[in-house]
Amino acid sequence: MRRTLVLLLTLVLIAPAAHARSGEVPAMQYSIEWGATATFWNLRDFNYLDAEGSRVADNSSFFKYYFNAEFLAGVGFNLSDRFCLGVRTGLVGVEDNIRVIPLLARATYAFKGVCNDGAFIYGEGGVGLRDIELSHMISMASLGVGHRWALSRRYSIDMALAVRATLDNPTLNASAVSSNAALYGAATVSLGLNF
């Protein structure tokens, strides 16, 4: 995992910005994004022994609202005039007292082109690190739609809506844990700047 992070950081720092000539699609684009996340659904599959030695099975699904924020930065490679493949990282709130540092791969398709005004769709997935020791990772996936306002060939503003699923294995204060999975469903709205 550390090698992947070092490789990603090296790529972002040494890759040239690839200034495009007039009318060409830039080879690369950087982005920063701010967003609000509304986690509204939780599915649990817990099975463990409690302090008295009794088996506890909690297989529940419930709606519970948590409001979180997110900040992400990324780099994307425009593989064509409509398709961009990139990586993003930052800080994302998942649920109450659960914040992660994600490492996400994102594929974006812009219907009118990456340098033009218009709608786009995207899908992304990856892992989120819950602690600095890299010992607790969670899985994350999102599907979204948005609109891009092109300010120039190089600069644009994105507004996006998405649904996100996050799979976690929370630590339980119990013995003989046979399952500890939690799935969180969320909706996000974000505003991004591409340059």
Topology at a glance:
Blueprint: H1 2-14, E1 28-49, E2 55-78, E3 83-95, E4 98-110, E5 118-129, E6 137-150, E7 156-168, E8 175-194
Antiparallel strand pairs: 1-2, 1-8, 2-3, 3-4, 4-5, 5-6, 6-7, 7-8
Q: Fraction of residues in helices?
A: under 10%
Number of continuous helical runs: 1
The tally of strands reads 8
Q: Please trace the helix and strand order, writing H or E for each element.
A: HEEEEEEEE
Class computed from helices, strands and strand pairing:
mainly beta
Mean pLDDT, to the nearest integer, reads: 88
End-to-end span in angstroms?
28 Å
**Proportion of residues in β-strands:** over 45%
Overall structural domain count: 1
**What would you report as the Rg, rounded to the nearest angstrom?**
19 Å
> Any low-confidence stretches, pLDDT <50, length ≥5?
16-21
Structural account:
This protein is mostly beta strands and 195 residues long. The two termini are 28 Å apart. The longest helix has 13 residues. It has one domain: Porin. Strands 1-2-3-4-5-6-7-8 form an 8-stranded antiparallel β-barrel. The chain is 7% helix and 67% strand.
Characteristic terms for this protein:
Porin, 8 strands, 8-stranded antiparallel barrel
In short:
Helix content is 7%, strand content 67%. By secondary structure, the protein is mainly beta. The chain starts with a helix and ends with a strand.
